[in-house]
Amino acid sequence: MKKSIFITGAASGIGRETALVFAEKGWFVGLFDVNEPALEELGNRIGHENACFRSVDVTRPESVQAAADHLARRTGGQLDVLFNNAGVLYMGHHQTISLELKKRTVDVNLTGILNGIDACFDLLKATPGARIISMSSASALYGTPELAVYSATKAAVGALTEALNIEFEPLGIHVCDVMAPYVRTPMITASPVEAASVSRLGVHITPGQVAKVVWRAAHGRRRHWQVGWMMRLLRFSTLAFPFFQRPLVKMLAFSKAATQGDRE
Fold first, then answer.
1. Residue 238 burial (CB < 10 Å; 0-12/13-18/19+)?
2. Which of 68, 86, 177, 64 is nearest to 127 (CA)?
3. CA-wise closest residue to 64 among 27, 108, 106, 29
4. Which alpha helices (H) appear in the chain, and where do they start and end?
5. 190: which of 3, 54, 123, 164 lies 20 to 30 Å off by Cα?
6. Residue 112, number of CB atoms within 10 A of its CB
């Protein structure tokens, strides 16, 4: 039986590249996203003997459960890796983002992960050496202006990872997350609003780079995996010099934010 991975947000960006990496390595990949035409194209590319796909809304528990059941029928009731990748990001000053979009950010980025873990838990528990890997972010290190709610969800992902890493250890399930700065995906490049930190940090990480780290995380024992030298530097500096966190974030985001705020 091939090893298997369940990927949310698989239709594009990080999810798509991760699916291609794992399929190339001989894994069976479960492709799940709201974009069914893109899933079908990716499934055809990988091959139906190596992949299954289904349209999934991660905010709806029954939708994610149906996806887990769909995958289980192809994998003999086992699952080696759950990759919680689906996410949304709405940039801008907090008061300019609608309450509906703020709630959607929480629903997709955090509730979606809870739904994924609950739906796949029995499959993971039945699989020796299983992993739960969730996408986090540099903004989990310290709340980032113009990404406030997004930052909050990613900080929650970090806390959830650390707690379940301990709680699930006796069950043989390793829990970790992948932290990256801005990644070159449409979520960033096609956003109608650009946060100051985007222009100052730049968008240097590719989905392929993240996918390679996900592959390493599927075989390693760390709790938090960083993508790229900038992410490693940011994490080290915040751990070693916690007093520098706020001035650093303020330096990256305050000036432009303040200027825009004055105009508004």
1. middle
2. 68
3. 108
4. 13-24, 36-46, 61-75, 99-106, 112-125, 148-167, 186-189, 196-201, 207-217, 228-240, 245-263
5. 54
6. 27
Q: Cβ atoms within 10 A of the Cβ of 258, count?
A: 12
SS3 of residue 65 by DSSP = helix
Give the relative orientation of helices 228-240 and 245-263 as an angle to the nearest 10 degrees: 110
Domain that holds residue 208: 4-263
| Number of domains within the chain | 1
This prediction has a pTM of 0.89
Find the CATH number of the domain harbouring 239.
3.40.50.720
Q: Report the distance separating Cα 51 and Cα 22, nearest Å.
A: 10
- Going by the DSSP 8-state scheme, the letter that residue 183 receives in this structure is B
Catalytic positions, written as ranges:
150
Contacts of 161 (CB under 8 A, 6+ apart): 134, 136, 175, 176, 177, 223, 224
| Run means of pLDDT, 10 residues per run, the chain, 264 residues | 96 97 98 96 96 98 98 97 97 95 98 98 98 94 90 97 98 97 76 74 84 97 88 75 73 54 34
Question: What dihedral angle (degrees, nearest 10) is formed by the CA atoms of 66, 155, 218, 183?
Answer: 90
Given this model, what pLDDT does residue 204 score? 72
Q: How many CB atoms lie within 10 A of CB 194?
A: 15
Q: For 15-25, b where at least 16 C-beta lie within 10 A, e where not — what string?
A: bbbbbbbbbee
